[in-house]
């Protein structure tokens, strides 16, 4: 298999239906080496479905995915060592302690030696995770589970990190540390697919962003490019307004709040 050196990830015309729901409806994007690409969109936009298609966890109805020249549906095994995944759901190995989980990961990924131990110790220390290293994962707080999941995804130095809402539940200090971890990852040529529904997070972390709504890519570019695009669409609006408009959340918000107030006031007898 010849590896494509220009793009780490190439997605063309990806389609995934769940019965009549078009969760992903003809999406295309590329991720370069060393780039953090953000999938930004509201709840139900199709971010997690896209992520699962890239991981080969779901089968596409149409389209092409290439990760380092491999097809995730056919070459799952070859890609396993090259990808790290942080899922939107909490960690599954709840009956293990972090120590047992990392021992397990080290054995299945063949991670041995002082380098890996030193790296793991440093990640644990940086994220303040040492104090609960011997506790069952099921007893940890949501944010602390998330930290363990992030370390588990990056410990083997994957080429591509796929992170579905990775900062959800993390405190401010841990967000800073994770951002630094991502920067170190891209400095050594790694790429990231980062999904979020929060624009400020996408702006802060991602080099390029694809705005996704109802399974379609409605805009794509660097933040500066999107800002220019926003000016072209309507010079009086800022990017946040444009994002809400592109994802059809602008008018409906006012309407929802108005209706909510009317109903609540009338049902409260006032
Ligand atoms: N297994 C499934 N069966 C049926 N419909 C599904 C399934 N998984 C996702 N969907 C639907 O596909 C659409 C996209 O869902 P997806 O989980 O990809 O959204 P998302 O952008 O990740 O949203 P969120 O921000 O809430 O995580 C939604 O309408 C969802 O209900
Ligand atoms: Mg999701």
Summarize the structure.
The chain is 41% helix and 23% strand. It has 270 residues and is α/β, with parallel strands linked by helices.
Topology at a glance:
Elements (H helix, E strand, L loop, with lengths): L6 E12 L2 E12 L3 E5 L6 H8 L7 E6 L8 H5 L2 E4 L11 H11 L5 H13 L15 H13 L5 E5 L7 H16 L3 E6 L2 H7 L2 E6 L2 E6 L1 H11 L5 H8 L3 H18 L3
Features:
single chain, 270 residues, alpha/beta, Rossmann fold, three-stranded antiparallel sheet, 10 helices, 9 strands, 41% helix, 23% strand, globular, binds adenosine-5'-triphosphate, binds magnesium ion
What features would you describe in this structure?
The chain folds into two domains: 7-221, P-loop containing nucleotide triphosphate hydrolases (Rossmann fold, 3-Layer(aba) Sandwich), CATH 3.40.50.300; 223-270, no CATH class. The mean pLDDT is 90. The strands form two sheets. It has a six-stranded mixed sheet with strand order 5-6-7-3-8-9, with helices on both faces. It has a three-stranded antiparallel sheet with strand order 2-1-4, covered by helices on one side. 35% of the residues are buried. The chain contains ten helices and nine strands. The chain starts with 6 loop residues before the first strand and ends with a helix. By secondary structure, the chain is of the alpha/beta class. The chain binds adenosine-5'-triphosphate and magnesium ion. Magnesium ion binds at residues 47-48, 88, 164.
């Amino acid at each position: 298999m010849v590896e494509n050196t220009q793009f780490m990830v190439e997605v063309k015309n990806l389609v995934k239906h769940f019965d009549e729901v078009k969760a992903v409806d003809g999406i295309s994007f590329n991720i370069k080496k060393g780039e953090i690409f953000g999938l930004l969109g509201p709840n139900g936009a199709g971010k997690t479905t896209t992520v699962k298609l890239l991981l080969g966890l779901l089968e596409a109805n149409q389209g092409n995915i290439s990760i380092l020249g491999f097809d995730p549906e056919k070459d799952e095994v070859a890609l396993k060592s090259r990808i790290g995944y942080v899922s939107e759901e909490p960690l599954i190995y709840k009956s293990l302690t972090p120590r047992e989980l990392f021992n397990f990961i080290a054995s299945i990924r063949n991670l041995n030696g002082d380098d890996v131990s030193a790296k793991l110790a440093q990640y644990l220390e940086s994220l303040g995770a040492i104090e609960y290293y011997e506790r069952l994962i099921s007893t940890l707080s949501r944010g602390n589970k998330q930290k363990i999941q992030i370390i588990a995804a990056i410990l083997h130095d994957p080429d591509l990190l796929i992170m579905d809402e990775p900062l959800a539940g993390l405190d401010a200090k841990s967000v800073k540390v994770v951002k630094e971890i991502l920067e170190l990852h891209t400095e050594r040529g790694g790429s990231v697919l980062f999904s979020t529904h929060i624009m400020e997070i996408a702006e802060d972390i991602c080099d390029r962003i694809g705005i996704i709504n109802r399974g379609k890519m409605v805009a794509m570019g660097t933040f500066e490019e999107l800002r220019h695009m926003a000016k072209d669409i309507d010079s009086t609006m800022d990017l946040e307004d444009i994002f809400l408009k592109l994802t059809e959340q602008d008018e409906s918000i006012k309407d929802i709040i108005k209706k909510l107030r009317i109903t609540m006031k009338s049902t409260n007898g006032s």
